[in-house]
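re the bet — no i am not wrong, look at it urself. input seq straight from the record:
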Amino acid sequence: MGIFDRVKGGTVHYIRDLRRLTPNARRYLMGAFFLGMTSAAFSLLLNLYLKQRGFEEGFIGSVLSAGGIGMTVVAIPGAILLARISLKPVLLISSIFYVICGLTAVYSDSKTMIWGAYFMAGAMTTFPRIGAGPFFMRNSSATERPYLFSLSFGIGVVAGVVGSIVFGELVKYFSVTGGYDLIWAYRLSLTVGILFSIASLIPFSLLSVPNEVPSEDKLDFNRRTLAPMSGLYLRLLLPSFIVGIGAGIIIPFLNLFFNERFGRSADQIGIYFGLVNLTMFIGVMAGPVLVRKIGMVRTMVFTELASIPFMLVLAYCYSLPLVFAAFLIRGALMNMGSPIGNNFAMEMVPKAHQGLLNALLTFSWTSSWMISTQVGGIVIQYYGFTLSLVIAVVLYVFSALLYYYYFHQVERRTPEGIIIQPGYRPVGES
C-alpha cells in the first residue's frame, strides 16, 4: 500500500469516528464553543485593557490568578455537587453568573471589584470543565473517545482562532471607525465577547441528561473509598501541576510579550493569537492519529519535549519572524497532548471516580496557575520575559520526564491497537 492510500485510509477512519459522536456530545461541544469565545476575548484583551487603564503587571497578574483561585476553590466542592445534582441545571446557572461576573470585571473602577469579579468568573467556568470529562465518557465509546476529547479541546482552540481575530479587529473598529478612546474600545469589545456566553444557554438547555445522578456514577467521599486510589491520583496530578506552574508564569503574558518586545498593537496580536490557535487546532486534531501509532503516554511526553527548543527561541531571539514561527510551532506541539492526557486519566480510574479525578485535575491546573500567574507578573515586571520563559522550560522538561517515569509501562501493543494493560499498578505501588 502506497503513502497516498495510507493517508486516504486514515482520513476515512478519522471522519468515520468523528461522525459517531452522539447528539448529546455535539450539544456540549457547541455550548463549550460559545463559552470559548468569551474566554478568547478575555485572554486577548483583559490584560491589555487593564494595562491601558494604568494598572501595573503585578496587579494584572493578581487579577489573572484570581480566576485560577476561583476555579481552585470550586473544583472539589463542584465535583461533590455534580455527584448529587444533575449536570444540566448547573451548567445553565453557572453560565448566567459567568455573564454577570464578566460585565462587572469590565465596567468596575474598583480594584477589589475587578479582582472579585474575575475570581467569581473563574469559579463559574469550573463547572463546564469538571463536568466535561465524565460526560464525554458516558456519551461515547472507546473508539471515538480520543477524538471526542481532542475535538473538545479543539473547539476551544477554534473559538480562540475566531475570537482572537474578531476581538482584535473590534478594538480597531471601535477606536478608529467608532471614534472611542482605547479604553472604551477595549471595554466594548469585551462586552461583545461576554454576549457569546448567553448563547451557550441554548445548546446546554437541549442536553439530554438524567434528572438524578445515576447510582453507578455516585462516589462515597470517605477514606475507605478514596485511600486505595491516592497513589494513582498523585501520579496523574503531579505532572499536570508542574506543567501548570510553568505555563502560568509566561503563557498569560504572551500578548504583553509581543506588545512590549516588538511593539505590536492589539489587532496585530489578535492575528498572531488567531494563527497560533489555528496551528494548535491542527496539532490537537492530529493527536489521536499519533496515539494510534505510539500510544497516549508517549504522545504526551514526545509532544511536550518537542516544544522545548521553540520555547528557547522565544526566550532569546529578538527577530520577529523567527519568534513568530516558534510561537506557532510551540503552540501546536505543547497542546497536542493535553486532551489525550485528560482521556488517559479518565481511562485509568473506575467510572465513579471519574468526576472527582476530573475535578482534581482542574484543581491541580488552576491552583498552579493561581500561584504562577502572580509570580509571573512580578518576574516579568522586574526581570523581563526571558527569565520567565527559561523557568517554564525547566518545569516542562521535569514534568514530561516524571510522566514517562510513572506511566511508560502502562500501555502495550495488541492486534487491536495500543491498550492500557489490565491490572496495571503505577511505579512504587505493590
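see?? Confidence is low (pLDDT under 50) at residues 1-10. told u. also The first strand starts at residue 411 and ends at 414. so pay up
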